[in-house]
Amino acid sequence: MHANSLMENKWIPYVLIFSLAVAQYANTRNHDFAWDDAIVLTENSRVQKGWSDIPELFENIKSSKTENRYGYRPISLLSFATDVQFFGLDSKASHRISILLYSILCLIVFLFLQQIFPEHKWQNFLATLLFVVHPLHTEVVANIKSRDEILAMIFGLLAMLFYLKATKKSSVLNYGLFLILLVVAFLSKENAVVFSGVALLLTWYKLSDTAELMEWVKRILPLAISLCLLVGIRLFAYSDNFFQNTDRELYEKGIFIQDGFVGNPIFSLESDFVLKWLNIIYIGAFHLYKFIVPFPLVHDYGYNYLQLVDLTDYQTYLSLIVAVVMVLITVITIRKRSIVGFGLGFFIITASVYLHIVELAPDIFGERFVFVSSLGLCVAAVGLTFKVIKSNRLRPVVFVFWLSVSVVFFSVGWNRNKAWKDNKTLLQTDLVILKDGARLNYNYALYLHRTYYQLPEEEKASMQDSILKYYNRTIEITDRLLPAYLDLGGAYMEFGRPEKARNIFVETIAKYGHLSAPYVQMAKYHMSSKEFSEAIPYLEKAIEYGSKNSDYHYLLAICQFNEGQHQQAIATLDVGEKLDVSDGPYLALMVRLHLRMNEVDKARRVLRRGLAQFPNDASLLEMKERVDARSAQ
Prior knowledge:
This protein is mostly helical.
């Protein structure tokens, strides 16, 4: 078949694109759950209910639970719940659905480009081909959780298609569908707000310079309305009336230990305006670099891998030059309404949300950050080669070049897919590159620690040194990851090395003396050796920094009880009970203390309260027998 007749056929380009997209990710179809899949599937109680409580999926909850550290993306949660409804908690089914959705997205990408530039069919096809196989997309497709990016882009581009229809033939229906799809995209992932900007770019490309002012107003007004609508949804979703946020509660309990620096070192530059913006520009240039050179790929670009730049770094000035040149080219080519200008404009608009301009993201960079914006670079790159090589005689050179690039990218992406097989494969693959990455060493230690409990007893001893090695490596890299200190000390205690645990806890208190968690760990160290009097001051300090944590009162009361300070222990528990008591043993200890003090009536009243909250708690039922026996005397 002749090359031109290929583009004249209505269906063949779509069949080729869909087939290539499926083939690109076919080797992920049998993968297990990995990495952030825990957030939306394996540790998400709401999603695991399937369709049994759909309204719950539309709640906005932020807490210490893994499932509640996701953001407000109810449409994506509904998608994952649909997986569970029809297939159960099945990683293979979820991976195959993600492959299907990605393949559908690629069809929409081609249709979108055809609607904007119908006269550039081959450029549209090659740009779509490049988008399909680009290795930067492996995280989005191979990691089920990142389906939210696919959904947001699907609905965002569909919204743009209806907006284009509205610019040709204005109708309430077209504008209405545009708004509905844009909202659905936004509720899939918040970064879809950028499509309001893309629609403005489309307005420029579809209206001529001779268009009257009212025509511009007529086109731009729906965009302003859409942006206000999305901002309104955002404000409502995070309002006091809707947003269920426990951060303040966690802080008051002394257990809020989140430090954004390890994921995004730019947090350390918030007070330095110049350096912050130089690094924002650098990250923008890094987006472009990673598009051109998508190797090596890793799942974590946080602290100690992607380094910050300063005024002495040549990369700072190189990034500035790249940024200035790109902006100039973008302005010039957009003014001419060229396909290159559209691609660059699309890239700048859609990448802006991930450049830490409005607010700092949890991660300094992620391959998923370039997912939507990479389409713009695909369009610009292909368009630039067609602009440079205008001769029809040399056009086969352009086709061969992009087909060759696509083959290379397909191979790189295919191999990278294998790393996402499961957590073990992902962590061990990336550890080769991220050997000095703080979070990877910590996460690998956590993985090994979880695996440890599944080993036969005779194999556990050999695993202990590996677990400790990666915890220690983490705190060698950075002292700004408190959980690593706590887990390392806990591991030393668990593995029978209490003195090393004590040294870690002393160091942790010196570094994090404003938080209660290190004091609690030191107290537990003393309690494990029955040194209750030594533990008491640390627990009192923990309560000072976590006054609303009843667990600390419980531990303090145990120490006071063992030191014979029964009245003080009861007083401590009374204070703690006014807070949030989460289990029966707390109240069972109160009953025990009242019995020890021969206060049977008080013991009975506490027992009654306890059984009302925890009717099946074994410790309370045991205390009931004791209270009944004492009452019978």
